Structures are given as structure tokens and as C-alpha cells.
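Course assignment 3, question 2. Fill in each field.
Student: A.L.
Task: Predict the tertiary structure for the chain below.
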Amino acid sequence: ELDHLNRELLQLVQERARIVAAIARYKRSRGLAAFDVAREHAMLEELLAAPGEGFSRGELERLLRIAMRFY
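Answer field:
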């Protein structure tokens, strides 16, 4: 079960990276900033509002910030 979750997590992280890259290309092609601090903050607040059991809120925030800084 853990191996399956690890593969699934990897697939989701890579899919997110592909989507973020596509969005960044789109924004840059139209002269827009690829990074939006307010949007990142709003996403983090929403995701961390009810983190559930497992990682602490701080640990989850660090992981999410790494993923959000891909581009």
C-alpha cells in the first residue's frame, strides 16, 4: 500500500509541475507575472485550514511551498 501511495504521490507532483509550467509559459507569453504572491498565500491558507492527521501544519506548509515554487 505504501509503495502504491508513493508512486501516486510522485505522479501527482509531476502532473502539478507540468501544469504549473504550462501556466507559467502562458502568462509569460502575455507579459504577465508567472508568480502571484497573493494567490500562493490564499492557496496555502485554504490547504492548511484543516491539515488533518500526519504531518504538522508547519511541515505541510514547507512541502507545499516547495511545490509552489517550481516556477
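Instructor remarks: The two ends are 31 Å apart (CA to CA). The chain has three helices and no strands.
Grade: pending
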